[in-house]
Design brief:
The complex is a heterodimer. In chain A, 25% of the residues lie in helices and 34% in strands. Chain A is α+β, with helices and mostly antiparallel strands. A 6-stranded mixed β-sheet of chain A has the order 6-7-8-3-9-10, sandwiched between helices. In chain A, helix 2 packs across helix 3 and helix 2 runs parallel beside helix 4. Chain B is mainly alpha-helical. In chain B, helix 3 runs antiparallel to helix 8 and helix 8 packs antiparallel against helix 11. Chain B is globular, with a radius of gyration of 22 Å. Classes of the chains: A alpha+beta, B mainly alpha. At the A-B interface, strand 6 and helix 2 of A face helix 7 and helix 8 of B.
Chain lengths: 353, 268
Amino acid sequence: MSDVVLQSIVKRYDATTAVDNVSLTIRQGELVALLGPSGCGKTTTLRMVGGFIPVTEGRILVGGRDLTSLPPNKRNMGFGFQNYALFPHMSVGENVAFGLQMRKLPKADIAAKVKTALDRVKLSHLADRLPKQLSGGQQQRVALARALVIEPDVLLLDEPLSNLDAQLRNEMKLEIRSIQQQLGITTIFVTHDQDEALSVADRVVLMRAGRIEQMGAPDDLFERPASHFVAEFMGVTNLLAGTLESVGRFRLKSGEVVAVPVAGLSGDLALALRPERVILDGTDEALLANTLSAEVEFATYRGLVIDYRVRLPSGVTLIARRPSPAVGGPAPLSPGRAVRVSWQPEAGTLVPM
Amino acid sequence: MGILAINRIYAALSALVLAFVLLPLVAIVWVSFFANRILSFPATGYTLGWYVRAWEQEAFRNGFITSVETALVAVAISLVLGVPASLALVRYRFPGRDAIQTVLLSPMVVPGIVGGAALFMAFIELEVLLDVEIAGTLPGLLIAHGLIALPWTVRLVTASLVGMSPSYEEAARSLGAGVFTTFFRVTLPIIKPGIVAAALFSFVVSFIDLEKSIFLVGPGRTTLQIALVSYLEWNLDSTVAAVATVQILIIGALLIASDRYARLARAF
């Protein structure tokens, strides 16, 4: 059993606290994404698990064993680096063999395991090449094979896709996920990209300023953000500040009163509304409930969709996203046009400021 | 003013500076072929005789051997001390780090003559204290040359290490390598160009040193540079120019070789 337990981890550098009391349990075979903007402490947390940075306070346990003060070479963890960190003076095969040589395995076993590991990432034919002769995607695969061949208890990946171009990133994302599930290896995956986190992880841990802001299944964070920060990070572009007037009635700072789902919250709140849920010139008034008049201020053509910025008479702006004519969407609206802005009350989520 | 005009002015200035640096060297090489018995202008004829005469001078031959031996030991000392020191300075943060870095680089900024005098006096004090001979002995000279070479090694190796992402070492550690295995199997091969350059450069700065050595050589054990100065005291002919020409060739070759291995410019 190799579940990973972080118990109240703290990392302080002189005056600053990089990681502030993070507690987290990652179950055997689970892939957890540590997500957050740069400086939120996600990489520091990962590096503490890997043993590259000593923890200031707290404990790290893997399968019940306390690893807090063990050096990285005694932790049996595979680490994937942002720059892959393949040894430039060793061939692909030698890179993969390195960890097995450190474990003093017999030569024949090493050769067999290296072959299996490279087969898994479909690169056995490149075993004799030097890393610099490979493409970025191939280097990433070798790095993955090298980290996995030692049969680590835990796989740690630090922004593994950030150096790849968009198409390759998608491909590698799927490959990492499929290998991870095949092997059933407990994995921590650090990224700043919410889309990446949502698509690979069993569970997403969103960090902010050294603390865990929210954790849960991808759809939890995406559909039920617990704070203004989470909603914003998850790509909700409409966040309207205001207060609850009565149950289901929300008064925006700018004066409009709109219908919202019932929520057990009070005080300063924000209504989080995805741009896809904001409907322009909708017809089914009964269904939409919230309808305000506005004016198109600006249109951004984005290929599959067009984003409209619309302004209410009070000055508040909203973003509405509609399919573009390329995918059968309605004809574009030009700036200056008067429109009706509507949304269903259930489309909004109230979050604390 | 157009970019072209600026480029031309820049090229002209560069040529001027280059000429300023190179002309004395060219003059020495030229003079080494003069047939004049006493060094004077213009040349009365040309000869290779001074090269033969230089080779016949025992002081130069012995001096050359002493200089090479000393420089080789200086390289060894500077690598053994300088590589671990650079590693610690680049990879770790610890109290007194800046102070140690300054001390390691200081032989480069203290004028050679001052450093030589200081070493000489320190050696004398030590001799009194320990009752062993140091000043004027081979070990004394070797220590001094190790110090001459050390800052250059630290600079070049530090530059290589700064250019090497720590993730290579971390990868090795996570794969199960201890600190020493990581150093010998990963760090050292990756920074090898910097180490070769440091060795070659250390050799050169030790080989050409005059100021520190002059305090520390003993009877019958002079370096080539000191033999040259002694020769100049009583002779004014082209022998010295001939020896200098040979040295220019050797040092030039070493510097080109070390630049091939690691861009020296990175260390300055």
